[in-house]
Amino acid sequence: MRKSILATIFLALTLSGSATAQSEKANPSQQQSVRQERQKLWKQFHAAKTAQQRKAILGKIIQLSYKAKVRPKRPSQTKPPVRQTGSSEEESTPSTSENRANTSSPPRLSTQLETLAKDLYYISESDYPYKKFHRAMKPQTPLTAENFRKLMRLDESVEIRVEPASSFFSDPPIFEEAEKARYAKIEAFMKANLTDIQVINVGGEDVVEGEVYIIGRAADGSLVGLKTKRIWT
């Protein structure tokens, strides 16, 4: 079976982990040269016919980024307003005992997940941050592609893929090795509070801009987790 682009990207990131930085800052002309080279490689990637060819090309793209310390351009983001609370516990990372107590509060769980994912980015041809996601769903309704389509009111023509989140967390999208520990904390938090944790990709391989959801089921059946975007050109 043909592997998804997402799985291929994660594998390519692993293969590129041995790349070392040659310079901390590239001058403008060097940055432009690297970006042009990246664009050429992305075109080759989308023209590739096999998963093996794609892996090899992605390895070159990631190594190029590490060597020049050039990251895909991140869209400007407006920081959300800080919630005003009477206690600092609201914004702090919850303890294990607090996790159990929060299982009946899906909105708060989604907010805490967004806090844990702050400054992490989903890597594709552009970097996008993770935002909180919460949507009510009946406990007896299984989390399937079609049920998610109905819940989100997506057109029948939109491709939706539902996959276990285990592969996502075992090889997360990272630029720096230290980011793995942060993804591990997110996974632990989700496992402590949610069930049926899945990654949902909205939009097929031929769609330039799609959405990605890393979500699970809360005690009341609600979908809780993180959402982000990806760009494939």
Number of strands: 7
Q: Numbering strands along the chain, what is their spatial order in the largest sheet?
A: 3-7-6-5-4
Averaged pLDDT: 75
Give me the strand/helix succession: HHHHHEEEHEHHEEE
CATH-defined superfamily of the largest domain: Nuclease A inhibitor-like
Proportion of residues in β-strands: 15-25%
Describe this structure in words.
Helix content is 40%, strand content 18%. With 233 residues, the protein is of the alpha+beta class. It folds into two domains: 5-68; 90-231, Nuia (3-Layer(aba) Sandwich), CATH 3.40.1460.10. Helix 1 crosses helix 3 and helix 2 (28-47) runs antiparallel to helix 3. The model is unreliable at 11-26, 75-83 and 85-103 (pLDDT under 50).
Topology:
Layout (H helix, E strand, L loop, with lengths): L4 H11 L12 H20 L3 H18 L27 H6 L4 H11 L4 E3 L3 E3 L1 E5 L9 H8 L7 E5 L1 H5 L8 H15 L1 E8 L6 E9 L5 E9 L2
Antiparallel strand pairs: 1-2, 3-7, 4-5, 5-6, 6-7
Helix pairs in contact: 1-3, 2-3
Short description:
By secondary structure, this protein is of the alpha+beta class. It contains 8 helices and 7 strands.
Please supply descriptive tags for the structure shown above.
Nuia, 8 helices, two-stranded antiparallel ribbon, 233 residues, 2 domains, alpha+beta, 5-stranded antiparallel sheet, 18% strand, 7 strands
